[in-house]
Amino acid sequence: MSSTSSTQIIRPARTLQGSLTLPGDKSISHRYALLAGLAEGTTRLSNFSTGADPHSSLACMEALGATVVHKEDKTIEITGTAGKFKQPSAPLDCGNSGSTMRMLSGLIAPHPRTFTLTGDHSLTRRPMERIRKPLSLMGAKIDLAEGHAPITIHGTPLHAIDFDTPIPSAQVKTAVLFAGLQANGTTSLTEAIRTRDHSEQALKAFGATLNRTTAASGDVAKLSIPGNQTLKAIDATIPGDISSAAFFLCAALLFPDSNLILDGVGMNPTRASLLDVITSLGGKIKVLNVEEHHGELVGTLQVNVSPNGLRGMHIEGALAAQIIDELPVLAAIAPYTSDGITIRDARELRVKESDRIALVAKNLRAMGAKLTEHEDGLVIPGNQKLHGAQIDSGTDHRIAMAFSIAALRATGDTEIHGAESAAISFPEFFTHLNDLCQR
Ligand code: S3P
């Protein structure tokens, strides 16, 4: 993150009206950037994420020998290394991006080079043992600094493993799949809680073979990926980011007469549980024009709100894992619901770009809310009135944006400190918020 901190003042709003096309999905942008860098040929991507994080992935690919060209029509062309990464001349800078660091580790571990991966203050505090462990089982040689970055990888040929993922993490799953793609033998991986499957879809799009089988009980899936595969470049348009859409969907929920249309939103079923949550809370969602591109569903969403106001809900178990990135904004609007929102089984929030449980609790309290903090979540009663306050974003993009939404129904103005962090995933956020809010 840039060291210049900026503050945004958010005034209360009367309603939210209008339409929006969202920048490309952050998760898919990362995966296409990384796989394009490994593939043979030139990949052409439209609607690549404008967030800083996927651009860290692109920069790492350039450092590894891929060519990246930003065209005038905003498409990005990536000419891959045809499976041969070069020795980078400097450490690979992953910026604020855990996705870059973890997924890239799996991608480069089988290449006969020495790589160092670094990141910013937040990233170098995040847990990396979770990728070192499975990659080491495959034969990778990885050094961490007390479980954290900087990471040093002494690239070496890898062999297949059977791996049970101990935590629901798409990034860990991806690190194993990307390594398995290039290992000797067929790697398999089971996940008890299904996490986002963009890597599986992206690998298939780039021409890889990959199988998914589900146990008879239906709740444990096994993925198998044969090794020594090569990838071919693709042309793709990246669907709009549903996690960025979440902020505006939640903003719409706050006003009974709001009307919001979001075009070209990614609706991959492993991400779209958010839409069920919005419906449970009282949103009315119409899904129009659904299409599929490279295994990813894309559609237009129209959102209105029940005149009866917002209901509350419990979010726990698999659902908490599936909407992990949307939990801060759901928590931030929880006091405005009638029955409150309970979030449990979300311990992973403590090791995101910030400790999101602690920061949500601190900032909701600053706005006058009552709540209970648990190690794995928050219990936030409903029917509360909030007032404007000084918000500490902790330079975490999702905290800055979540509290900008809470501020819309508060009395008085709210100051979001570290607002520049929104650019990690959504640089246009404050402009769109201003355009859509009527005051
Ligand atoms: C992501 C997976 C999630 C999510 C992150 C993006 C991905 O992290 O929180 O923002 O693109 O795979 P975990 O895999 O650590 O759960």
From TrEMBL:
Pfam families: EPSP_synthase. It is an enzyme of class 2 (transferase). Keywords: Amino-acid biosynthesis, Aromatic amino acid biosynthesis, Cytoplasm, Transferase. InterPro entries: Enolpyruvate_Tfrase_dom (IPR001986), Enolpyruvate_Tfrase_sf (IPR036968), EPSP_synthase (IPR006264), EPSP_synthase_CS (IPR023193), RNA3'P_cycl/enolpyr_Trfase_a/b (IPR013792). Belongs to the EPSP synthase family. NCBIfam families: aroA. This is 3-phosphoshikimate 1-carboxyvinyltransferase. It comes from Tunturiibacter gelidiferens.
